[in-house]
Amino acid sequence: MMHGVAIKNPDGTARHCPFSLAPITLQRAAFDHLLAVTPLISQLISAVSEDAAFVQSALHDMAQADPFFGRLMTLHKQLHGTADAPLSPPRQPLLLMRTDYMDDRQQGAKVIEFNGIAAGMGPFGQRATQLHAYVQQQWPSLYQEWVENPAAVPAPNACLFHLAGAIAQAAEQIKASFDESGAPLFVMVVQPDEDNVYDQHLLEVALQDLGVRTVRRTFAQLATDLSTGDGQRLLLAGLGPVDVVYLRAGYQPEDYLVPETSVCQDKVDRDRVDEDSVDRDSSLDRDSESAMSMNALSQTRVFIEQHRVAVNATVSQQLATSKAMQMLLTRMPASDLTHWGLDLFQAEQVKSVLAAMHPISTDTVEWFMTQADPAAWVLKNQGEGGGHCVFGDDIAKTLAALQPDEYAAWALMQRLYPHERDRPALGVRNGQMTVVADLVSEIGLFTAHFNGQPMTAQSMTGQQGYVGYLVRSKPAKEHEGGIHSGKGILDSITLVD
């Protein structure tokens, strides 16, 4: 807790994040493969997200089936127009992405999901690596007892510093484009009652150390405090020009719900494309409650992107990192992926880490009910965070309850069964130690791209665009491995040849 690795409690107190006492071990060759392929995935997603016509065409059915993503698609059309009448929003896309993997026992490491919005906890990943180095130095015999492989070497992880460096570079580029001097301004968009404030604060302090001013605002606050300056400059009341907007909110309908009308809505209405004209068939028309949830503050995102400011995540990035897009890219042949700037070898590398996925259809439901092994699959909707996956016998029940017009919001994904740690692990949660015999790990690799270009020098991290990692481990029997909402604990990586 003294190092900022904490979670806020509802009463304003705090508790430490759960953690392992010693790290996991990976084969160096396997980790190096992930370091090589993850920046390629980010390069692909960056290019796909800026292909507005493809995003709208590819995700049309999903947007019709999922009210929340239907609203996001409406925002996308306000910003980018349609294939017949394209628009070019002035925002500059800053893709800070976390690609999550599990190391399957049979197939090796495979992607679980892409995270392009609220892809946080990079600072905690660096802190976990530092913690294990501290334990190794201070209590070497204890470390040797609990580390998975005593001969393994720690994998470097400066995720906090590299994320901050990438954001600072983008901020400075925006400021320089206006020929302005002084400290850049970074705005973090947060949820009103966020418990993950410590992870966010670590990033803010790192940015401040690089000369960047930082502020935290909710969508409701931004709705009344944003305005337009010369040259499509985004201005924040009392603070002036904004250089970077970083969304740690906006991935669920509740983030946009307020009791009063958004002032920013009126600002956008003066210049924006009429929503009814761009998406008259939106599924939101069939779900007034969801529409109300999104209407209040979603226009603030449109207003932000109608200015020359670095943004993570843009609406297009959020759509491009959806489960539906992951499924579409997974099912494409490698040759099709070369449309977005990869060569065939790079495309095949990307394909090597994508697990099998199937769209839901009448035929898929029939196949699953009659032939599939429920233990071999997981059913996913488009939700972010924990609680959006269905396992085992519950899959058939969920499929049977779905209506055909809901199918496109769901996908079947091959279930991954990662290696369990070779030795028992010691986990610490709420100050209590627990021996876990079957710990498995989820590895998230962070990358940073600005306007399609990697934001880190190869000499800094070994790979263009790679900035660091986060490891969350959990007992194999647990489905939810989140640090905040699941049974996950912070962990780090050691490597063995």
Automatic annotation (TrEMBL):
Record pathway: Sulfur metabolism; glutathione biosynthesis; glutathione from L-cysteine and L-glutamate: step 2/2
EC number from the UniProt entry: 6.3.2.3
Keyword flag Ligase: yes
Family to which this protein belongs: Belongs to the eukaryotic GSH synthase family.
A molecular-function term among this protein's GO annotations: glutathione binding
Domain Glutathione synthase substrate-binding stretches: 186-257
Organism for this UniProt entry: Photobacterium aphoticum
Keyword Magnesium recorded: yes
Protein name: glutathione synthase
Keywords: ATP-binding, Glutathione biosynthesis, Ligase, Magnesium, Metal-binding, Nucleotide-binding
Region Disordered: start-end pairs: 268-291
Cofactor: Mg(2+)
